[in-house]
Amino acid sequence: MTSTLLQAPPDPPAAPDRRIGSAVRNTLLNVAAAGGALCIVLVACAFFFHITLIMFKTGSMSPTIPAGSLAVVREIPATDVEVGDVVTVDRPGKLPVTHRVVSIEPGTGSQRILTLKGDANPVADINPYTVDHVRIVMWSVPGMANVMTSISNRWVMVGTTVAVSALVTWVLWPRPERVRPPARHRKSP
Questions:
Q1: What is the pTM of this model?
Q2: Which of 20, 50, 88, 166 could cross-link with 98 by S-S, CB 3.0 to 4.6 Å?
Q3: What is the CATH number of domain 50-146?
């Protein structure tokens, strides 16, 4: 006796437009997920490691850090500052200043008295700064401040929110399921 196995014909290949749509949908969803994960990592870094961003509006640190640069800074105690570091110092009632440390004097307790100078400036800042902590510049990207300013525009934020909402809706929208033919079973003569 011989038995034959009847197999169901293979599923027909998906239509090319369905495969392309699925690939586009998956790619866009992966990009959105990566962007969301990056945002979570950046918020965690800001919270746990005191890392923030600053933008350079002037050229006082040129050519090292030109105007329009975006810098990543980390808050550190003033006792850890060394001559030559580029630091951001908060000034009461004024915008912070970011310049290079040219001298350090001891202060009261953990305070330090810093003399700062912009790389492009001919002389040091007029008044020294008495600080407990500073934000040290870890690295910077020239021209990135303009990009960040553009991204933070209200209409860009609204457009991004609408686009991401539309993407999530499109990806999660129910689709009709493909009907598969019933599987055929083994037959014995």
A1: 0.67
A2: 88
A3: 2.10.109.10
